[in-house]
Design the sequence.
């Protein structure tokens, strides 16, 4: 793991977008693993600027998102499908047929997991997987557990995740379940970029850097991947 500490979230967003620019310009049909949540938004804004300036194109890019809520229509304003379209896809020249999401309403979760794994394989694997981190150390929606997971599965969200994400849903109770890529799917990515900003992430970031690898701290598995970049702002890095 290579950890880089920046002054603030804006600096991270510039550096992260540069990493994407290098990849996309050297491999215009790259396969990107994408994340939702507040953390990647500034990076997506910089990617949109780069697209508008003619520095990058998404026309041959394939994407796979990490996760999607269950029991929510994909066009609901709070779905991750909507989030990605509002924050990136509708603003760049991406080919919608190359955009991939887990179906949170799939009637057969095992079949859905297999479908996603096969689609990732058929695309040639994920070149660069973007991750945020939960305050409890989750990556995608792999919550603290007794074992590391492998392929995508349906997860019961923990109270800590619900407490962190309920704010996006206002007065409407947020979903209790999600379909998420598993730890194995994430670890098979060729390169991983994890971004963490803000003091609320400091404990999880510290645990990630302790070197202990345990499914109780799902992000700790990243210690076993040989190409991981961690970008932190000073607040998230404050316990290092
Ligand atoms: C989102 C995801 C989650 C978030 C994490 C941090 O696709 O998989 O693991 O990355 O919950 O969320 P934010 O960035 O909102 O703090």
Sequence:
């Amino acid at each position: 793991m290579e950890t880089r500490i920046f002054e603030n979230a804006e600096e991270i967003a510039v550096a992260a977008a540069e990493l994407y620019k290098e990849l996309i310009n050297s491999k215009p049909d790259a396969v990107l693993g994408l994340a939702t949540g507040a953390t990647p938004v500034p990076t997506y804004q910089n990617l949109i600027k780069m697209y508008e300036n003619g520095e990058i194109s998404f026309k041959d890019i394939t994407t796979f998102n990490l996760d999607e809520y269950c029991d929510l229509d994909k066009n609901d304003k709070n779905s991750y499908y909507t989030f990605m379209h509002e924050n990136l896809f509708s603003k760049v020249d991406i080919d919608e047929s190359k955009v991939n999401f887990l179906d949170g309403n799939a009637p057969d979760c095992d079949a859905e997991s297999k479908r996603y794994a096969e689609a990732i394989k058929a695309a040639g694997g994920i070149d660069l997987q973007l991750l945020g981190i939960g305050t409890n150390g989750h990556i995608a929606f792999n919550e603290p557990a007794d074992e590391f997971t492998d392929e995508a599965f349906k997860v019961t969200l923990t109270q800590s995740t619900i407490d962190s994400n309920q704010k996006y849903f206002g007065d409407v109770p947020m979903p209790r379940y999600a379909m998420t890529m598993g730890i194995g799917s994430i670890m098979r990515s060729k390169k991983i970029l994890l971004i963490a900003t803000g003091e609320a992430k400091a404990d999880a970031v510290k645990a990630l850097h302790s070197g202990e690898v345990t499914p109780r701290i799902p992000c700790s598995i990243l210690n076993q991947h040989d190409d991981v970049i961690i970008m932190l702002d000073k607040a998230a890095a404050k316990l290092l």
